[in-house]
Every structure is written in C-alpha cells, then in structure tokens.
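Section 4.2 – Deliverable D4.2 (structural model, holo form)

The reporting period included a commitment to supply a predicted holo structure for the target in complex with 6-O-phosphono-beta-D-glucopyranose. Inputs used:
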Amino acid sequence: MAAKSDALVLFGVTGDLAHKMIFPALYALTKKGALDMPVIGVAFPKWSPERLHRRVTDSIEKAGGVDDRRALKQFLSRLQYVSGDYKDPATFAAIKAALRGVKRPAHYLAIPPSLFETTIEGLGAAGLATHARVIVEKPFGRDLASARELNRAAHKVFPEDSIFRIDHYLGKEAIMNILYFRFANSFPEPIWNRDHVASVQVTMAEDFGVGKRGAFYETAGCLRDVIENHLFQVVALLAMEPPTGQHFHAVHEEKARIFKAMRPLKPAEMVRGQYDGYRKEPDVARNSDVETYCAVRLLIDSWRWEGVPWYLRSGKYLATTATEVLVELKAPPQKLFDDSQPRHGRTNYLRFRISPSSALALAARVKVPGEEYTGEQKELFLCEELAGAETPYERLLGDAMVGNTALFSREDAVEAAWAVVDPVLEKHPRVRPYKRGSWGPKAADALIAPDGFWHDPAAEAGK
Ligand code: BG6
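Output (structure tokens):
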C-alpha cells in the first residue's frame, strides 16, 4: 500500500470549484479523521486568512450545513493561504516554506487548464515533486495534441502512478455500480453483446445554462466538457471486457482498450445545438458557434459490439436534469406476439439511472388481463440509492491522498478518448438553435431514428 500524503496543497483555493465541491469534501474527510494534515490553499488574489476561512465556512453551510463544529474548527486551523502568480518561482518558494516538515505533499490543481503545465513545472523546479502526488482537474487537454503535450510535461516531473486525473463521474456510486452490476452478476454477461443488444443510449441532461461559466464554456463546449470524458467513461464501463483478475490495473487495461476501439467520430454522426439566448450570457461571444448541446452516434470496433450503435447526448437548458443509460435489447426473433416488436414501442431494456437518484431497472413485457395476447412493458427495479454515500469529490480526494489510482484516468485512456473526438473538434456542423426547456434540436431525433428514439429520463419508465 502506498504511503499516505501528509499535506494537501490546493491550487485554485479561491475558485468556484473549491467553493462548490472541494471544501465540503475536505470537511467531510476531516470529520472522518482522513484529513489530519496541513492544507495549503494557493491562489492569485491577496486574501487574508480570515477571508478564506469565511469562504470555507460559507461553502460548507451552502453544501448542507455545519454539523460538526469541532471538525470545521480543526479544518480551518490546518488551513493556510499562499497568494501568488503560478508563473512566479516566489510563489513556489512560499509554498515550500509553508510545507516545512512535510515529506509527501499532494498538489491539487483545481485551476484553469491553461495553467496546468506552468504549475507542474513550477512544482518540479522548486523541488516540490519529490515523493509527491499531483491531482489534476478535468479537462485534461483540449484535444489530442494538447493532452499529449500535457502528459509529456507532467511526466517530466511526476511518474504516472503519482498523477491523479480527476473525472468526478468515476467517483459516483451509480457509476461504480455499473462495473459492479456487470461483473458481480452472472445473468447480464450472456446477453451483453451484439447478439442481444440493439443499441445503447446515454443521456446527460441539465435544465440550467452555463451561468457564470461562459468564459470557460466558450473554450470547451458540450463535447469537450462532458461527452469526451464523463459519458465516455460510462460507455467504457458498459462496454469493457471482463477484467482478468481483481486488481484495478486490469480494469484500467480493459477500459483503455475500449477507448482505443471507439471509432473516431464523423461530422455526419453528430448534432450540435445552442440554447436560445446563449450568446447573451456573460463572457460569451455574440456570434459564438460553441455547442451547449451535443448528440453523437458512436461505434465500437470490437467483436462484442460490432454494429451496435451507442447514442450519447448532453445539453444545458434541457427539459430536465437527469443522467440515464438505456441498454435496449433486441426483439424476440419470432413474432408470436405483435406488440413485442419495435414498431409497437420499445423492446425490453435495462435502464441505469445515474442521477439525480441512482436506480437500476429491467423492463419486460407482461400480459394485460383479457382475451387478447397483448401486454405492456413493466419495470423491475433492481436497486435504489443508499443514503449516506460519499460525494464523488470526497471519495476521489480521499483515494488520491492514499495513492489509490483505481478511480482515476490513465494516460493512454485519456489520449485514446481525445483521439475519438479529435476529427470533429474543428470540423463539424454549425450549431442549431433550440428552445430552453426542450430536448435540443430536432436533428438529434433524426440521428437516432434508424435505431429508435430517445428515451426521456423524466418519464417514470421508458415505454
Ligand atoms: C462538469 C461540467 O464536469 O460536470 C459541468 O463541467 C456539468 O458543465 C457537471 O454541469 C455535471 O456534473 P454532475 O455531477 O452535476 O452531473
């Protein structure tokens, strides 16, 4: 077992992510006794320690309230602040001074991606990388070339097993459950292939817009922001071969194989949308062609998945906030009962609800009483959310501090995922406008039409 880090350096401590996600996670870790170490916050603004403390307290209050005053006090007493420019060696000298006596710091880069490389170099030059770990927020690169460049720069300073690339989707219980469900049960495997699966859809819908993140969003867009990472991770867990053995390296290996087997996207297999009014959001270009909605048709070149289309879609200001997977099964081969065929609606399916709640449902047709042999599709719920689950950030930061790389993305997987989207990052159809509160551009219905229709995660069951 790797040694536990003995300090956490949080770059970007005054930022939004720290306020929304990281402080509540660090507070939760403190409550459990898992963060008994100095925390050095780093950022550019010249804040007083009191101001930072107020910000932390506010964050925890907003995230659910302070239910353990002692833990909060402990966390604040361990929190120091270093203000400075990430390009300035003096900043790193100040961090080094604050880390006196520390042997194995973990550096968490919760900062804009454009600053990753400089910061990693700064850490290396100041001698702060020895026996250290680096935790990097997504997006890791903005295309294949920049991801490679970033990996190269990171490896000059840190070995691969000290680099923790965060994709917070991997820290979600409902996503971990996909892996568990597939390989802790014996009944899915015989049908988990091209002979029985007709198509797979993943929808990640949000009923809100980009808010104050216009500047970031303008550099990203939906494909880079969530499809290439969060949704691809979901696909990899659904599509991977069984890992050979219990070690998590085997899972990484199989997931990486899936990213490598994904066929590079083509412009004709994607629909880009933009919600009405996006161009009036703060920090957004008046003629922006950045997509706030994206749907793609993905193919996986493997024996198991040959010919099975994977439809992924995500968007801001859609009709609801929910993330769901629908694995649609093929119709029975013989038409004994007419309504078992796709033209009468959906065939049997497996539904993984990932958020806002976590559930797993298996849909099967059952006869309705009467003379006729007709029926309806009903869902069997396999599991529901368990209260008390750790938040993804709590889980991932806790894991990174003890050197557990299981839920982080490996270098080759990250690069392979970029290779899939690379051909359409620049060459793509123009965005199509869509109404707020809708399901995005109509063209997305045409994209999926050869294989069915989109499942509405707001509906109780995808009938
Ligand atoms: C982030 C994206 O990675 O994930 C956001 O940058 C998105 O645009 C968010 O809203 C969604 O995360 P979650 O956990 O709320 O589904």
